Structures are given as structure tokens and as C-alpha cells.
Amino acid sequence: MECLEGDVNVKFLLTGGSLVKVRSNNWKKNRFFKLQEDFRTVFQETHKIIGRKNTCKFSIDDIDTVRQGRHSEGLEKYTDENMEDRCFSVIFKNRRKNLDLIASSREEAAYWTTVIIKLPYILLLDKTLHELFSWIFNCMRKADKNHDNKMTLKEMKNFLRTINIEVNDNYAEMLFKKCDTSKSGTLEGSEIMHFYSLLTNREEINVIYSKYACTGGQMSAEDLLKFLVYEQRERSSMSDALRLIEKCEPDETAKENGHMTKDGFLMYLQQAEGMIFNMAHKDLYQDMSQPLNHYFISSSHNTYLMEDQLKGPSSTEAYIRALMKSCRCVELDCWDGENGEPVIYHGYTLTSKVLFKDVIKAIKEYAFKTSQYPVILSLENHCSLEQQKLMAHYLRSILGSALVTEPLGDKMPTHFPSPQDLKGRFLVKGKRMNKLDSFFSSSSALEEDSVSEEDEAANVKMPGEKPKSKMKLARELSDIVIYCKSVHFVSFEHTRDTQAFYELSSFKESKALNLAKTSATAFICHNAEKLSRTYPAGSRTDSSNYNPVPLWNAGCQIVALNFQTPCKEMDLNQGQFLPNGLSGYILKPKFLRNRATEFDPNRLTRGPWMQKKKFHVMIISAQQLPKLNKEKKNSIVDPLVKVEIYGVPDDKAEKETHHINNNGFNPMWNESFEFTVFVPELALVRFMVEDYDTASHNDFIGQYTLPFTSIQNGYRHIHLCNKRGHVIPSASLFVHIMIMDLQ
Fold first, then answer.
1. Integer CA distances (angstroms), 272 to 278, 281, 622, 716, in order
2. Which residues are annotated as a binding site for substrate?
3. Carbohydrate attachment sites (predicted)?
4. What are the binding residues for Ca(2+)?
5. How many C-beta atoms lie closer than 10 Å to residue 685's C-beta?
6. CA atoms of 697 and 691, how far apart (whole Å)
7. Which residues participate in the annotated binding site?
8. Is residue 380 within 8 Å of 342, Cβ to Cβ?
């Protein structure tokens, strides 16, 4: 941590200072903030209670992002423009409210934002061994109730419970006596270090290391290369082995000799190179020059909602969060608002309203921070002509040249442009009065025309809703719908014979899933030429989600989900779009891009899609699983691991380990499973850890989902994610993977 302690910005935060906390026009109060010495916790003084100060704190690990300037709903509403360079917001990963703050000067704001943005990356560089070390010693300090830097037997028992491991009294006393070499009845100094080494010992790693450490008890570069080739099944060279030694080996003498110690080997296994996810798929690696409809596109339903569909808040924040997760298709449910200003909310419900122009500003600001590839704005238009014209004005004036307002090229296109062609651009999906050919002919349409409401709100009957009817469409709004013209779906034959490539239909959940089941091949052929959008049933008022996998199997590109809801379906979505640089675009397999395909996911036949694999996985161990009930001191998890496969129906499978009683710190299973995967290009694998419960449903601990084609062979760690898809610090699985071709 020397690099942190010497940093001027960090020194400023360690001293602390006053910031103005903003909640409303009338609630702006000075609060003292200070970075703690662990470099992971920010202390906050709140208010006085009967003469004493109340404090709270938050962890750096809980921060999702820091936004400089007035880029939150609260700061935009409750601060003046001249405060822009003094304002910043802390956005949390969980449901905790944003922390909107004003510094006394631009320089002070820069101190705070620079450090908070930089800290996670600095800590990540030394994450593995340091994180384990600091986490355990932080728990030890908490267990040392009288702060004498010594541990009694009672304090040690409390410490073990803190790190999620239950031991019986006899074992605890045996461990204590083994470390208490001074026979003083307490552990201190080197005795605590001995205790630490016993706790952090990874016997399963020792066994693997000893098998290949054939050079004076250490791994030479040649030994490491053998491990990489024979165990990890990598196409590695001597230079790769030497690079890993240079990167991971903490012992300078061993590094100079081209050797890797056991600590260096553990470090390697916990780096990106030792993870289950193939590093070659982390960055952009797919061809991005195919037509837009050849990709799966990460898509959100009712993006404006933060919670449920009936009374939850609507917010620009929901758009920002979706876009920062690489969502590339967002929904705008537009209605007439007060003072002539269009608003976005879930019509005929008690959800709050947000100004259309504020949403477009937020989208403009955050659309391309995570991915440079095009964003589709799916308009559900319920506005009067005047407010439609204002919507068109805002889209043009705020998005500027980034908005696609005419076809690319100088002649009528016959297929979609590619994500590469559309980098940094916005496409509007909505109603259009005429064909796209009008751009290349002298004919013109009426200034306004009537169109039928073929959108989600028209398909979902809500209390107080007026009967479905024709609506007037403003020419100004119609003209900016280019490649995504919304049309009613009649049949695949009708679509093939009468509709242009840029005309797309939206399918409610039940209709889409039925077509994917009964007419899968026709649906795939349809999607090989056109775009399809699917969305959750209107009855899902709790913002729950449907299974996206059958629709991806049918080639549907825009499978819209409720991003605000943590669930298995969102885990699958996150896993699907994990590769390819978090671009929000995944190239569909070739057999889903062929208009003459005979592939049917429900009735498999021989074809290029059939690439049968044997998937062997051994669940070896887990490390530092989180406690689920932090309020109960004696609450220790009883973990088990499930391995789930999603894909075509023949590939769907699930197996689980036995549970281990009272050990969330270092449980070990050494349990093996085998699966047969028929269509690997459509398969997703989900590893889930649960807390076993005899009386009720098991509780979720963590999960990790990734495409089958992105899995690496060999001994691998898996960093677990929480319900919202954020990595749980230090929590991991250790597995062995072997994938083999089957004839």
C-alpha cells in the first residue's frame, strides 16, 4: 500500500473534510467524510443526537461508479449550473440511494473523485493475496475486543465465526494450543502469523503444485509450461511461462531464477489467466461488420422503472444503470405531460413520471461510456401531435449528428448496416408513415397520418385504459424512424412476402415463446433477415422476467428484460453478453444467420450446429463465501454448488454437490459431474452456490454465468457474483474443467 500512502490525493482523503450532502432544495447539509486507514472504507459523520455525533460508513467495494459534475437526478434538480465543477455523485451497486455531494472548490472535488475512482483499480492490482491478508486481519482486529493485539481462545472462536467457519470446541482448543508456542494463553505476533498461515493454507493447491514443482521444490519455467500445456490445455510457449512468473511471482530471488513458488502459483490461479472465463473473449473479438440483425442485442424492457410496474419510481438513473451495463436497446414509454412537456412513465399506473428531454440528455451522456456500438431507442408513443413534434425536436437537438435520420449510403439499402457502421449512433424504433424508399424518390407523405397502436401498452389492458384506437403520427417523429419501423405481425409468410427488411415486430412473451416452440425454424429464418423484439407479459407487475434462452435459440435479437430485477434470467443475460468486450452485441452462430437453415432447437438433426461435447467438471472447493445473516453471530452457511446448463432443450441439465455443514470459509467437495452438450454455440453454464436449508428453500449465496464456448479447460477459479451481478470480494469457487469432442 506504499503507492497509496504516498499519493497526495489519498493523503487529503485520509485527513478528511466537509462536503455538502444534497437530498432536496431544502435539505443540504455539511457532513464530514474521511477515508479510513484500510483504504477500503469511507467514514461519514451524520448528525448530532443528544450532544453526540452519529456516524456511518460505506465500503469502496460497494461503489459502482463516481460521476463528476451534476450528472444525477438530484444534483440536476437541486443545484445551480455554476456549481458543475464542484459537484459529484457516488453511485452504489446495491439499492442504496446515490450520495450527491458538493465540495467547497473544484480542486477539492477533484481530490475526492480521483481517489474514489482510482482506489478500486489500485487495490485490484494486488487483489488476490493482499485481499485475503487484509480481510482476515481486519476480522482479527474486530475479534480483539480489548484491543491489546492479542487473541484469547474466546476471541479466536468469535473470529472463526466472523469468517464464516464453525469449529467444535475441541478443534478450536487444539488449533489454539498449536499456535500458542509461548504457552501464555494468548496468541500474539508470530503466533498470530502462524495461525494465519494455517487458515490460508490451500491443501488442494499444494497437491497440484507439488506434482509439477520438480526443480528444487519449486516450479521452473519448464515445469510451469508443462502445467499450462498438459493441465490447462493451453497453446503456451516458454515466453508465456516466463511472463506469468514475472507477473505473479512475489519472491524476487525465485523470479530472477525463472522459478515460481507456491505463493506465485496461487497468485497465478487467482489472476485473470487462471479464471474459467477465456481471456481471449474478454475484449472485442467477433466480426462487427455483419448486418445488425445477425447479432443478439442486450435489451431492456420499461427501462425507466427502478422497481415494480404499478407504483415504483421512474428515473433517468434507471437508463444510466442499464446503459452502463452495456444495454443497447432501451424503452421510452411516452405520454403527454404538463406544460406541453412529454413525459415517460408506465401509463395508467401510479409509477412516477420523468421528463422525456431529461431522459434523452441522460442517454446522450451515458450511451457510449461502456460500449461504442449503436443504441436503439424503442419508442412507445402515446402523445398528442404537438408533444410528438417536441419529442422529435429533443431527439434531433440533444442527440445531434449521432442520431440516424436517413439511410446510410446513396441508394436504397437491401439489408441492415453493421454495428461497426453505426458506432456511436442512435437508432429510433417506432411508427413510420411511409416506406424508406421515399428518401430516394420524389414522392412525399402527408404531414401527419393515422397509425394503429401496435405496441406493448396496446397489448396490456390496464385499469382505466381507453379502448385501443388509431392514433395520429407527427411527420417530424415519423421521419427519424429509419432502420426500425414498427409493424404488426400477421404471419411469417405475410412478413416474407410483403414486408421490407427494416420493418420489425414486437412479440409479447407468450406469443414469442409459442412461436419459438411450434415454429422455431420459421422464426429463425425470419430473424435471419429481419429484427424481432420480445418483451415480458403485462401480468408481470412485479417486474419479474421470462426465460430468454428459447428466444435466443430462435434467433430473436432484441429479447427485452427488466434490468432492475435481480433474478436467474438476468444472470443468463449477463452471462450471454459477458464476452466480446461488453459491447452489448454478440454475433449469432452461423446457422442462425442463414435464411435457408434447417436448424430446429426443439428437434435436433445432424447439421453444422451439432458439435457434441463431453463437459466434465469437478467442484473442488470454495473460498470466503459471504455470511447471509450478519446479524446472527452464530449464523454459518452450509454451502452446496449447483452446475446448470441452459441452451437447446436437449442440453438443459442440472447437477449439485452435497452440502457441507458450517463452513463458508474453505469448504471442499472434490465432486465430479459429466454433461453432454449437443449445441455448444447456444449453451450457457451457470455455477450457483446455495446455503442448504432442511426446512425451506435453499438461500442464494452467489453465482457466475458464462457461455459454454468461453470456458477454459484445467484448474480454474470462478469469482462469484451477488444477486445484482456484482462481484463478491474474495468469494470464489475452485474447479477443474475438461471439455472433449464426441463423435
1. 9, 12, 17, 10
2. 21-48, 429, 431, 506, 533
3. 182
4. 302, 331, 333, 380, 636, 638, 662, 691-693
5. 24
6. 9
7. 21-48, 302, 331, 333, 380, 429, 431, 506, 533, 636, 638, 662, 691-693
8. no
Residue with cell 521444490: 217
CA angle 411, 416, 418 (to 5 degrees): 110
Q: pLDDT at position 52, please?
A: 52
The closest alpha carbon to 538, from 526, 547, 546, belongs to 546
Closest CA to 35 of 19, 23, 52: 19
Whole-number Å distance between alpha carbons of 703 and 569 = 12
Give me the amino acid identity at 174: M
Tell me which DSSP letter residue 118 carries: H
| 561 close to 551: Cβ distance less than 8 angstroms | no
Q: 130: which DSSP letter?
A: H
Give the CA angle between residues 363, 367, 542 to the nearest 5°: 65
Inter-CA distances, 588 with 22, 184, 300, 530, 679, Å: 46, 67, 19, 13, 13
Backbone φ, ψ for residue 504 (5° rounding): -125, 155
Q: Is residue 460 over pLDDT 50? A: no
Cell numbers 467437495: residue: 669
Is 719 considered catalytic here?
A: no
- Tell me the Ramachandran region of residue 149: left when phi exceeds 0, alpha when psi lies from -120 to 50, beta otherwise: left
pLDDT for 16: 87
Does the annotation mark 346 as catalytic?
yes
**What is the model's pLDDT at position 525?**
97
The dihedral formed by the CA atoms of 307, 692, 142 and 632, expressed in degrees to the nearest 10: 70
Cell 457510449 belongs to 368
Number of neighbouring beta carbons within 10 Å of residue 668: 15
Given the residues 281, 301, 526, 717, select the one marked as catalytic: 301
pLDDT above 70: residue 464 = no
Residues 336 and 334: their CA atoms lie apart, in Å, by: 7
Report pLDDT for 250.
Answer: 82
Cell numbers at residue 377, please?
Answer: 431507442
Q: 625-662: string of b/e by CB count within 10 Å (b at 16+)?
A: bbbbeeeeeeebbbbbbbbbbbbbeebebebbbebbeb
DSSP category for residue 105: S
| CA–CA distances in Å: residue 299 to residues 25, 425, 560, 576, 727 | 35, 16, 5, 12, 22
DSSP secondary structure letters along 29-76? EEEEEEE-TTSSEEEEEEEEETTEEEEEEEEGGGEEEEEESS-SHHHH
Burial annotation 3-23 (CB, 10 A radius, 16+ → b, else e): ebeebebbebbbebeebbbbe
DSSP code, position 543: -
> Residues 267-285: what's their mean pLDDT?
95
Total Cβ atoms within 10 A of residue 243:
14
CB neighbour class for 124 (10 Å; exposed up to 12, middle 13-18, buried from 19): exposed
Strand pairing class (41-49; 52-59):
antiparallel
pLDDT 10s digits, 531-586: 999 999 989 988 899 999 999 999 999 999 999 999 999 999 999 999 999 999 99
Strands 503-508 and 532-535: parallel
Mean pLDDT of 298-305: 94
**3 state SS of 312:** coil
Q: Is the pLDDT of residue 68 over 60?
A: yes
Average of pLDDT values for 212-217? 94
Give the residue from 682, 678, 741, 683 showing the smallest Cα distance to 713.
741
